[in-house]
Amino acid sequence: MIQINKTPMETDVLVVGGGIAGLMAAISAAEQGVDVTVAEKANTKRSGSGATGNDHFLCYIPKIHGKNMDPIIKEVRNSLIGGYHDSPHTVKFLEQSFERVKSWNTWGIAMRPMGDWEFMGHAFPGRPRIWLKYAGHNQKPVLTKQAKKRRVRIVNHLPITDVIVRDGEIVGAIGLSIKNSEPVLQIIRAKSVIVTTGSASRLYPPAGSPGCLFNTAFCPSCTGAGQAMAYRAGAKLVNMEFPNRHAGPKFLARCGKSSWIGIFKDPRGKTIGPFVTQPTRELGDITSDVWNSVFTDLLKSGRGPTYIDCTRTAKEDIDYMIWSLEHEGNTAMLDYMDKEGIDVRKHMVEFMQYEPHLIGRGIEIDLNAESNVKGLFAAGDLTGNFRADIAGAATFGWIAGESAAIRAKKIKKFQKAENSALVKTRRRIYSAIIARESGATWQEANMALQQIMRDYAGVEVRSETLLGAGLKYLNDLKQHILEKLTADNAHSLMRCLEVLDLLENGEAIFHTALERKETRAMHIRSDFPFTNPLLAEKYLTIRKEKNRPIVEWRDKQ
Amino acid sequence: MIATDKNAIKTDVLVIGGGIAGLMAGIHAARQGVGVLVAEKANTKRSGCGATGNDHFMCYIPQVHGKNMEPIIAEYYKSQVGGFSDHALASIFLRQSFGRVQDWQRWGISMRPKGKWDFSGHAFPGRPRIWLKYAGHNQKAVLTRQAKKQKVNIANHLSITDIIARNGKVSGAIALETAGEQPVLRSIHAKSVVIATGCGSRLYPSPTPGWMFNTANCPVCTGSGQAMAYRAGAKLVNMEFPNRHAGPKYFARCGKATWIGLYKDPHGKPVGPFVSKATRALGDITGDIWSDVFTEKFKSGDGPVYIDCSSTSKADLSYMMWGLVQEGNTGMLDYMAAEGIDVRKHAVEFMQYEPFLVGRGIEIDQHAETNIKGLFAAGDPVGNFRADCAGAATFGWIAGQNAAARAKRMAAFQDISDDPHARKRIRLYSGIMQRKTGPDWKEANQALQQIMNDYAGPRGRSETLLQAGLTYLKNLKKKTTETLAAGNAHTLMRSIETLDLIECGEVIFLSARERKETRAKHVRLDYPFTNPLLTDKFLTIRKQNGRVHMHWRDRL
Amino acid sequence: MPPIINAEKCNACGVCADICPTDVFHVKKKKTTPAIRYPEECWHCNACVLDCKQEALSLRIPLPLMMLYVEAKK
After folding, report:
1. What is the residue extent of each domain of chain B?
2. Which of B437, B447, B468 sits opposite C66 (nearest CB)?
3. CA-to-CA distance for B332 and B466, rounded, in angstroms?
4. Domain end call among A118, A135, A152
5. What CATH code is carried by the domain that includes residue A460?
6. pLDDT tens readout for residues B275-284
7. Mutation test of the interface with chain C: which of A139, A180, A336, A351, choosing the one with the most C Cβ atoms within 10 A?
8. What is the three-class DSSP state of B126?
């Protein structure tokens, strides 16, 4: 059996995942005067999708945008990230966003590197701009330092695998130490738990390079753990049937498409979108935000491929673009381009649409960032009824920290989470994987899962029969995996658990996709190829009760 | 530099590849009294697509089909293999096919295991049946034995990498010994060379893209024959037309016509119009005729498509299992048994596989000779004739005959020393072996597959897609040639396979760009119609002095 | 497959292994140059390259991740 650390950790607030949301949650909770621990799979200095930086922070600054927030709310709704919000969350986020900006600036992340607040990119001509350009290359080290300053305990190399619930309330969590080759379980007693594990990559095959599992725009170590562990604990997930697809350079998958300053063109040099004819830093080319599938559609029609053409971009804007890309975390790409002689002043670079992933799809939270499980909070990319990328993670991370701390203060005693039946069950599963001499590797399991997701719950077409078949195969695969998966050290075991979490997310996707009998956004049903107005403002939640999935409709708030 | 064995090999006839076509070529050439060397990448007993058996041999038997061959020729053209064959070659094949059947029977491959000649499967109701059912599980062992009996020299683990030709005449080849840890180069003098290297797999991503070797056809048949011939100045033909096989999902296997069941949708409705009950005589020919059905039903959301054997008679089920064993599918049957997959109660999902090259490649005449004198080709790498095992057997025979005849006419071997092309290739291989760091063959193979899939793929082609893809492919070729690294004989062999695949890829791009219409699986999004002016027009492509020549000709 | 450590420049501080978001490195023994144990799991984020004070790290982008580009039309 896997070793289990006899001494459980105790902490008022446990933060699961030390990304943007997690560190903000920790700082916020610590400021409330409670004891905070961040359990991080890698190292908070460089973990998650914020690893080496970002350069866009969605926010509302009254001084710039005016006292009336309504136009900004509208802009958020129509943006790339605003489609699946509960409205009160949008409002609360926007109201608090500037405070977060100011804090970051104070702490040493340059939020107005050009002197004044600059809103650039992701923008329509003639409309308010809401994406603040900032210099985020050092955001993770800065936030880590701020957390440590407030005596937050950061435990790196400790991925949390489960949250522990008793009588409908959170009492702690199970962690897997990957510090050494030999895996060791660590039980944590906590009064509040905040899951901030980021988005879910590796669910579908990487669009251009299916054999390369880690070629993803968002962090490939973010594999929907938060969604999965919350789901297992009885929390509601929402909007799981709607895949997101990012876009960017091909084949190297990167974020930051809006940091490029150019125009999308076809190979004959003809501009594709109707928005701009001259590339500028203010607007960029919003075609790819609005016409999400443009890169794929042009390949399918034969008019493509689609290129970004920066050859007519002004010199100062090229410099600005390169500087932005550095802050967006794209130095590896820039180094590669240098080495290869790819020069945006004379070359057009092909862009593509990436594979489906989950961001802003997952745990349902209220305005206090709490799920339906008492004491279980969530923030950032893994919430399903709110999304605003970095800014959303920062803002709702802060809210979650506050709420979690307030709750923790009300609770006198820690519960003995280590005595929970869940600990025994999970320990048995993990031990079986380690004990197996030979069998299937996590890579096999991950690829098999991706194949099923792509074919049966993909973005080309879904139908009753395809989803039904896929769900059956997924269950078959799950059986196979539980019987055959093998790992020989902590790292591989971690990867195995990631795949199991992905499977859980996959199941939720199948059930909700089956239930939504219409076509909407990228949820395309060939058997219901129309958009049903009755479902326009309806969200579909899914939760597990006694191991059975229960789907429920509710009104969008 | 790579170790070189200074002793050059001399052989009258060199056969490249010890598959069905290669062994038949070797046997028949040897019967003409000349010295024959079969150079085989692996071991002829189990190499190639015929490895563990096949169960269908297309042929014309006058005793069964009647004296008039015309209806059988017509049936051939309607079959899934007949679409791009020169008529003359089809006729020759059919006429000689029974001779090969009888040879095999005599040598110990059971061609009429049920007593009478049994034509079953791949068949339309009410029409002549042309696929002979045979028990081929031991075919490679039998042919190997026969070759040895004829005093054919079989060199296993000897991979031919290049053909040496001068002034439009073949003179020899370069080979790589791969039995040891480190590769050893050999030079071969030959008066005639027969290319019989099989099909071209691993050009496009497999059904399971992270597993490159999950292919229905042999994954180490990588279009090397086509690539070598092209480099030597031979014409390739019909390269723009991808083939796509179909079979069980996700485990890629041949033998779909060995299953006896009906293709059905998930509601139990048959997808094809041909039969309402599956019998051994016909099977369900929907998969041959409408091979896109598995993909189409997926796209429309009406899928998946399953094969349903639950109404198949008990006797036919036994026949099917026996057939699958002969077809080389014991690996699959063992898996199904272990998993509890029972065709009597379970419907198995089928899928369409990735594009590959079979019956696309080297252009031959009636003597199986290419435009390079002394260079012959037979079997799957031939581009203007295809008939799977039977085609390989028959044209292998013809190639052997003519290769031997030529060898007899030639007094002396040609000089192959100091061939500039050979030196260039050897430098390339040495470079790969010398590098300590760099991308490996797997990276290059995956990158190639990605480019082929997106720019010359099944989704559709267009001028701009093909042009872009060709640019990227050339870039990849340059990077691969300059930076690829391998550490031993096996990985060098894989590296060369990948380079050959890149060559085939280039040819596909160029040919696809030239054919400005949609026909069969060559889909042009910018020319979405079939141009009657291009019916029965074949597009050939060859390279001479670094320049590519494309040429339209009539189907003969 | 990246990353590549220049052993001559490396001072075995172990920072690269500590901060890698996808746990690609393995430190067999303290104060020795880490091994790249899981090269296929590299995200090519460049964190190790940026954080190495000795500038001992570089990334090689593998071929399947090649960027595609063409000359712009005039």
Report:
1. 1-17+32-54+136-183+213-244+356-556, 247-352
2. B447
3. 37
4. A135
5. 1.20.58.100
6. 899 999 888 9
7. A336
8. coil
